Amino acid sequence: MQARTLSAYERMSPFEIKDELIRLATDRKGARLFLDAGRGNPNWLATAPRDAFFLLGQFTMAESRRSMDQPPGLGGLPQPDGIAARCDAWLAQHAEAPGAGFLQAAIALAVARFGFRADAFVHELADAVAGSHYPMPVRMLPHAETIVEAYLRQVVCGGATLPGRFRLFATEGATAGICYLLRSLRANRILVPGDAIALGCPLFTPYIELTRLAEYGLRVTHVQARAEDRFQFSDAELAKLEDPRIKAFFLVNPGNPTSVALEPRVLERIVAILRGPRPDLLVVTDDVYATFVEGFRSLLAEAPRNTIGLYSFSKYFGCTGWRLGVVALQEDNILDAMLAARPDAAAEAQDARYAALSPEPRRLALLDRMAADSRDVGLNHTAGLSPPQQAMMTLFALSELMDETGDYREACRAILRRRSDALLHALGIDGQPNPLFDHYYGLIDLGYWLRTHLGEEVAAWVARNVHPLDLVFRLAERHGIVLLNGGGFHAPGWSARVSFANLPDAAYDEIGRAIRAIAEEYARAAAAGPAKGAASNGERA
To answer: Which end of the chain, C or N, has fewer beta carbons within 10 A?
Structure first.
């Protein structure tokens, strides 16, 4: 194989390296196999809420024509008075249509559980599906916010009864939430260039990359979870958060790429730090994979006053392309308290920034500032996630609230368990049950595998002679398999992240066997000696 210098890729994001790996994997002449397990886009769909959404669209168009049907091709806006009864009658006429029973049950549940006026709720859904208005309020539609908050309490907070309520900002996926949050923290001088933050590693790469950008200029401390601790933060690592110079702690829980949720003892230690030496510490927790761990509880539940939560519907409902996410913040929180307590001189810049929004701009809550900042304040009146997206999000949330037996949840988990078991079996690993493992990703630590399966000498030779990126490039070129390099997530250097969400079950046996084949190549090269081994100094044979 032609030598390739890999050092040029060392500073690149694994998500950008992936594009080169895909090119290599698909350019192989005569090759039939191409398996992209690099990104976590699930290959399943939640069908019931989608059926309901598209059926709701048909009802909405009937309402539009009822409001105005002349001249041909023009309709009016759905009218709120009596719309719930008309919807019920329409659904009865279309009872055999996919989604009809779900939609009737969802409306009934929402009205009964949340005390909604039926006309107001059904009209919000119909008007949202029509997409005929900007979202109002811009932060989130009112019925949608109530329903999604209940969903988050159930799947992210373990059904905990918490004081106060969470306010939500609907965003174009959790990725937009990350960007909006950082922008507002900077605009409101909560985090400014030169400030110190902590990142819980291994970590979803964009958190690492965004904080490096010049406009944020943040100094980073890594709180590192290690494989030998089953990717749990040790007390010694968490003690770094006691440093008063660190203003915020960012983490993904369950982890990406580790797929492991924090143990109760780790949550308790973090809470003790927040209640003890660091009551001022901001925690940002990304809980996208919460639904895949039974009984999951987020720091949003354990320490709600200090915590901002990020969530996306993409993974659980198979709706990455819909771009559905929320930022959650309890009404009583340290950020709004911090803004309110600023002396007049420190608040003047923010007063000027938000003066067009309110006669008392300094009383604006952070989430409302975030919505405005997402449109550079001046376009706040057109901010917010599109209403059709919010309607879809509402139906997804209702589907989980309606699923009292957890059938959908268990079906998703079973898919992931089958696939992760297949990979472990192919690698000859006897996986120990771990109720905190969500099975969405697997982090394959090649160094550890070599030590335990082929011996310390082979592992040491690979560490001396093989570039850490060699594994993923060799998988792409020789086997047509795309994985992401673990080093880009601050995971062990000779590791790779595999997604169990986006390929057929049988693919994971292929991936495991390909990794073993490459490991055996390394072992043969190690036995042959340095002169015949893999290239060093950033190259590979």
So the answer is: N
For the segment 188-194, the average pLDDT, to the nearest whole number, is 94
Helices first, then strands: H and E counts in the chain: 21, 14
Write out the CATH class of domain 47-133.
mainly alpha
Distance CA 130, CA 78 (A): 9
- Domain 4-40+407-540 belongs in CATH node 3.90.1150.10: yes
Chain position carrying tokens 């055999």? 96
Q: Where are the chain's structural domains? A: 4-40+407-540, 47-133, 142-343
Amino acid, res. 204: F
The letter for the amino acid at 452 is T
Instruction: Give the CA count within 13 Å in the CB-facing half-sphere of 179.
Output: 9
**pLDDT given for residue 138 in this prediction:** 95
CA distance 97 to 215: 52
For residue range 110-127, list pLDDT tens digits in order.
Answer: 999 999 999 999 999 999
- Pairing of β 307-312 and β 324-330: antiparallel
CA–CA distances in Å: residue 366 to residues 156, 248, 326: 21, 16, 14
How far apart CA 291 and CA 424 sit, in angstroms, is 23
The identity of residue 24, as a single letter, is: L
Nearest residue to 62 via CA among 81, 87, 85, 84: 87
* 319-333 pLDDT per residue, tens: 999 999 999 999 999
β-partners of residue 437 are 260
Q: List, in order, residues 6 or more apart from 285 with CB less than 8 Å away.
A: 251, 252, 253, 298, 299, 300, 307, 308, 309, 310
Q: How many CA atoms lie within 13 A of 27 on its CB side?
A: 9
- Can you name the residues that pair with 196 across neighbouring β-strands? 219, 246
SS3 of 200-255: the string is EECCCHHHHHHCCCCCCCCEEEEEECEHHHCCECCHHHHHHHHCCCEEEEEEECCC
Per residue in 22-80, pLDDT tens? 888 888 665 657 888 888 899 999 999 999 999 999 999 999 999 998 888 899 999 99
> Which pLDDT tens digit goes with each residue over 372-392?
999 999 999 999 999 999 999
Alpha-carbon 462 to chain mean position: 34
- As assigned by CATH, the class of the 142-343 domain is alpha beta
Please check the confidence at residue 409 and state whether its pLDDT lies above 60: yes
Distance (Å, whole) CA 151 – CA 160: 12
